[in-house]
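Hello,

Our lab assistant flagged a job as stuck in the queue for most of the afternoon. It eventually completed. Since we weren't sure the result was trustworthy after the delay, we are filing this so someone can double-check. Below is the sequence as submitted and the structure that was eventually returned. Let us know if re-running is recommended.
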Amino acid sequence: MGRWQGGAGDRLKEAALSLFRTQGYDGTTVAEIAAAAGVTERTFFRHYADKREVLFVDQGEFERAFLTGLPETGADPMRLIAAVLDSAATLFPEQRRTWSRARQTVITTTVALQERELLKMSALAAALTRALTARGIDPTSAALAAESGVTVFRTAFTVWVDPAEDRTFPVIQQTVLARLHALIGQ
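-- returned structure --
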C-alpha cells in the first residue's frame, strides 16, 4: 500500500481488533495485523509501539480529555471532578460504543491488557490529583476526589459497554456519580 493512502492507524486498529476477537490477543502477531490492514510491519510500528497499544489511546491525549474539563477555580473537589467527568464523557459518543464493546471483550480475556488498563486508570488518577492540588485542594482531598472520579468513570464505562445497555455514556456516568454521592451520604 502506498504512503499517500491515509487512515493506516484506523485500519490497523480495526484489523487488530478483528484478529484479537477471532484468534485471541496472544494468538495474533504484528505481522498479521499489518497484513490485514494492508500495510507493512514498519508502518505498524510508526503508529504503535506494540500490538497492545492498538487498543489504547495515547495516555497524554486521554488525560488531556479529562483535564481540559477541570474548572480553573472552585473549592469543592467533588464538584470539580463532576465537571471533569462531564467533559470527558464527550469521548464516548454512540458511534464509538460498538468498537468499545469489542475492545472491552478483548481486554477482559487478556491479563496483560487488564494490567495495561489499570495502569492507564492509575495514571489518570495521579494526573487528576496533581491538577486538583495545583488548584489549592489539599493533597488528601485531591487524591480521594481523583480516585473517586476514576472509579465513577470506570464503572460507567463498564455499564455502557454492556450489550444490554442503551443509555448514553453521559447519562450513565451522571447516574453512577449520583449513586456514589448517595452511598457517601449514608
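-- support follow-up --
The delay was a queue issue, not a problem with the job. The result is valid. The chain is about 70% helix and 0% strand. The two ends are 60 Å apart (CA to CA).
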